[in-house]
Structure formats: C-alpha cells, structure tokens
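Could you join me in thinking about how sequence relates to backbone shape in a protein? We need material for that, and I hope you will provide a protein of your own picking. Once you have written the record down, we can walk along the chain together:

…
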Amino acid sequence: MTRTTAHPGLDAAILDYNGVLGLQPTPEQWQHLARTANWPDQDLAAFQDAVWSARPAYDAGQLSDMAYWAKVLGAHPGPRLLHRLRTADTAMWTTTDDRVLAVLERAHDNGLPLFLLSNAPLHLSDVLDATDWCRRLMTRTFYSARLQTNKPDPAAYQPALAATGARDPRRVLFVDDRADNCHAAQSLGLRTLHYTGRIADLEAALLPIPG
C-alpha cells in the first residue's frame, strides 16, 4: 500500500508568488495596461520602464495607488482612470500556473505547511488573499507592502520564517524565481529552490517519495 506523508526533510515551505505560482504577464496584457494609461502604442518599452522604476516603492507600501500611477504617468490620474489602471494592473498578476497549484495541492494534502511571501502592493495583496487557492492552501501570507520592505531585504523573510515555527531554518524550503531572493534566503539559513519553470524540480523539492 502506498503511504504519503509530509516531506521528511521539511517542516514548511515558503513560496514566492509571481514567477512561481503566478504566471508572468503576457504581451497583450502589457499592451492593454499601456493603452489604459493612454501611452503611445509604439513606446511600450518606455512604459514598462516607467512601471518598473516606480514599482519597488509601490511594492514596499511607500506609495499609494495614486502616487504610484502619478510617478508612472508623470501626472496624477483622475479617480476614474486610477480605478481602470489598478484593475488592469491587478489582472496582469492574478493568472496562476495550474501545474504549480497541482503540486502545492499534493504537498498540502500530505501535511506540509505552506506560506506565501511576495513582493506585492496592498491592493494586489488583498486580491490574492481572497482567492480560493490561497485560502485553501496557505497557512499564512506575507506581502512586502504590509511588511514595508521588499525581498531580498533579509527583514522581509524573518516574519514568514518565524511563522513556520521551525527550530532549524534548514528544514524550511524557500522557492523563488529570482536568484537574488534565493541568495538572501540562503544567508538566513533556509534551504532554497531557484525555480525556473521546471515542474519536476518543484515536485522533487516538495513531495516525498511514496513508500
């Protein structure tokens, strides 16, 4: 008879959202956001640069929605445009990878506590917390805007690590698609998986061998 239990080498796993559970935005989604912002179609690269240059402060909770989009656009949007921008932006980051969710379902069913640690602004944090998969699978969630700091700042990891209750950080797996975030987690003693989209790597790291 096949027996499944939590991974014998792990007490918990801490997972990034975008690039692990969440799929990267498509070119069409970027184009839709740019057009919502009334940005010239031929200058999408400049729009993306403007979005990313202001994003760290937004993700860290240092900018409101209005202040963020004012930095991106170079002028304050009215409330109606702000609502449309926030809606389009949020939609870009809420498509999940079914393959990853299937692995997390199995890990959860096997008794492995799962925690989410994501660089995300306040509104997106609330949206992610309300999803069925998050409420079902995650023991707790942690977001940069609520923590007031972004990964790879070591301070961003400590609340999630403490929440696992693990006495030995080497028994906690941290999964992220960015190498710098993984290096910071390693400096705190966590086990890490730099996830590059290979679902077999995630399965090997999170799921025990049936025995």
